[in-house]
Amino acid sequence: MSQYSCAEEIAPRLRLFVEVDAASAGLMDRRAATVDPIGSCRYTLAALPAYWGIQMSNFPEDIFKEPEKVDPDTLANLGPLRRLAGIWEGRKGVDLNPKADGPERREYLERIEMQPIDPQTNGPQVFYGLRYHVHIVADGEDITFHDQTGYWLWEPATGLVMQTLAIPRGQTALVHGNAAADGDSLHVQAERGNANYRICSTDFLEWAFRTDAYTFDVTFNPDGSWSYVSDTLLQVRGRTEPFHHFDRNTLTKVAEPTLNPLQAIVRRGITRAEAHGYK
Questions:
Q1: Do 34 and 99 belong to one domain?
Q2: CATH of the domain at 185
């Protein structure tokens, strides 16, 4: 088997040094951690695709055959995402972002709506998911501070969790992780340059505030609320050290989710037009 040595040009991709600034005001304690995913610093060529994000999965040969029967009830098949369904508000959000004279800490109000969509198939692959919209207003400001849309998706057959996101400043991402159906937490991540799960930015952001990695951690709390910490690793133009752009908040449910359209037809007997929102 051919060997790929731990050459200088790939070493930064194989070791991540994380330092969390104390200015994050309680997001995490200041600490440093070193992660070496290869240990011995040698990888076979056969193993490299998995590390770089190219998943070598045992997919079926028939890529067109869809499941003959798919449960229409999305809320019953969301696995760990079920506890995200509904409308949520949080009033104690904290954002730590880079400015010319150093990190800026902002507090914010947040509203998130997550509604179930009909089951989705890629040939034999089946996803259940939530369509979401995040709207954030910073304390003391009238203008929108952050707006984001996308989907949370769950593949029951494999435990795959995905988050898609798009923000109106020219940035999108496809983020992934794995979770147990009854898990109390979620962890998803994406890296710049990953073959499958990646971050895509407009030219200016890539030049001035390059996003090299993104992680999103969710903790489901005993009282039914949930909390998150997001970490966006930025390389700011003119700075030598990467910047960890942190956000955190705790969300409380203010309204229950609706039924996905197909389940509304099955359960309530309404028309197709009514179920899909046509007038």
A1: no
A2: 2.40.128.20
pLDDT digits (tens, 9 = 90+) for 88-119: 999 999 999 999 988 899 999 999 999 999 99
The stretches of the chain forming alpha helices (DSSP H) are 11-14, 48-52, 203-208, 261-268, 272-275
Same domain, 156 and 30: no
Does 93 share its domain with 193?
yes
Which of 118, 119, 125, 120 has the alpha carbon at shortest distance from 65? Answer: 125
**Domains contained in the chain, number:** 2
- pTM score, whole prediction: 0.80
263 Cβ contact partners less than 8 Å away, ≥ 6 residues apart: 72, 73, 74, 75, 116, 118
Chain center to CA of 247: 13
Task: Classify residue 145: in a domain, yes or no.
Answer: yes
What is the Cα–Cα distance from 46 to 34, expressed in whole angstroms? Answer: 25
Among 177, 188, 184, smallest CA distance to 232 is for 188
Full domain range(s) for residue 193: 75-254
Residue range 154-179, pLDDT digits in tens: 999 999 999 999 999 999 999 999 99
Place of tokens 């070598």: 56
